[in-house]
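so the lab meeting is tmrw and i was supposed to have these ready like two days ago... anyway. pasting both below. for each one the top line is the aa sequence and the line under it is the structure tokens. i havent really looked at them closely yet so no promises
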Amino acid sequence: MKTRIISAVILVPLLLFFVISGGIWLKVAVGFLGLVGMHEFYQAFSKENKSLHVICYAFALFYMIFIEDIINGNNYFNIFVSVFMVVLLIYTVLYHNHTNALECMTGFFGFFYACFLLSHIYLVREYTYGKLLVWLAFIAAFGCDTGAYFAGITFGKHKLIPTLSPKKTIEGSIGGIVTATVLALLYGWWLQRSFTMDGVNILLLCGLTGFFGSFLAQIGDLAASAMKRLTGIKDFGKLIPGHGGVLDRFDSVILTAPAVYYIMLFLIDVQV
């Protein structure tokens, strides 16, 4: 517990600095987390094929450097994904003696799981009103985690998915969703009173991100547990003492950040 607290004392100010700063600082930080997360994923599923991983790291770097053009450009993302897959398939054909199609798919999925999904933290921050709304990704994830914990120990009786996470309960899951949704709505109420945000129904946006984000946060947590059980590991990494690796600490944010981003795309009518 002491180690976890010390790590949190160090990490929280760093998180605040990079998210508040935005821009190149946040892009570098998210890119670093994405690459480390990919490494953790490959170590768990396919640690031997390092040359294939290098190709995936190179595409991840390219993606993060040109993320604005790839995401916002006309069909650029489709081109990027297609080229990425073709390169991996060519590699699989040329080096078929020590590479199989499963490793190719592992490399492809590792990028999308660890780098692409996490990159939505940066995409949210740089979007309209992003400096205010990016915190919803963390409110949904950590609010759900906290609410689920206390609701679980207070009311928990019925197991959620015991084969994946024996301690999680249905009552805890519901408590997490309720807590995150209420916190998101309170944050939206504060934003509405404190800032002028034209072209957006802030309470609706915050309510939706709190509800759907907290649901996806639990899916992210359980999916990470499923992958760790499949590979027989306790943690994906050891980068953060007391917390594990990047994928252990951000397994919920990996899905809440995209939820916030795409809800913003649908509900925000202005570009600033």
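ok protien two:
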Amino acid sequence: MRLTISGHHVEVTDGLREHISKKLRRVQRHCDTIDHIEFVLVVERAKHKAEANLHLAGADFFASETLSDMYPAIDSVIDKLDRQVTDHKRKQRTH
């Protein structure tokens, strides 16, 4: 799995990278066919926005969250991705 993290008006620190990598392990447990994940972190005034694109073989998922702190925004985005991947896997099994 390739992971790309970029920041706009925010420095992507080792702490942010580590936090994202650690939280993504939960998504990786549900799906081992993840090709690439792109994270974009943006700070605009007092708003911290996290966006992610997750690319699987045959499916793409997107999640976004804007909060007052970056770490909860990242957690929320990863929760959304995890839910989308889990739903996708469940739909594949039932069809």
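from a quick look at the 2nd one: The mean pLDDT is 93. The first helix runs from residue 14 to 30. will dig more after coffe
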